[in-house]
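Run log, item B.
One chain of 190 residues. Sequence copied directly from the ordering sheet:
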Amino acid sequence: MARFKLIVTGDMEKLALHKSLQRIFSPNKRDGEKVIWEQPRKIQCATSHQLSPTRTPSGPMKQLVKAMIAEAGIGKKGEPADLVVVIDDVELGNLGRENIIAAHFQNAMQHELNKYNTKTIQRYQSILRQKCSFHLLKPMVESYVFGDINALRVAGVPKGVSPKILLTGLVSPTRLVRAPLTQIFIHLNQ
């Protein structure tokens, strides 16, 4: 049995994202194993305030990293997840600053790993490379349900462009396949 765990920052994602992904990746098998999509874990949004390239990672960013390490390394009741995906929205104050968000996540990861001895750091680095990924949703999910006709454009989607989700790395026509990272991108079709 393969356990997939999402770490999200919004209520909508917590309630429905894992169920939506289940439908996309049907049948729920990975290398012949049944896939269990666990209830997502919700952490405070790390991009709700504008991040600065010169500041240290925020508390919420560190919490995202700690949750990723915990789910991949220890897991629920001592059972680590086989795949951990951290997903945060690009909030309006950070539009066009995705590289800064990624740098904050990397710095938070380094800060957290530095708490351990060298052997433990190497073990976690191996686990993180094999089981984990960090993704940004742009535009933020809520943009699709706002009553404002310009909501997608305000959220960073250029006029005349239709966003669509691209999935790579885990997709096979018939089943989930083992991959070092899941890549879920919002692609702006131009």
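Observations after the first pass:
- Residues 2-189 form a domain with the Rossmann fold fold (CATH 3.40.50).
- Residues 166-190 have pLDDT under 50 and may be disordered.
Flagged for discussion on Thursday.
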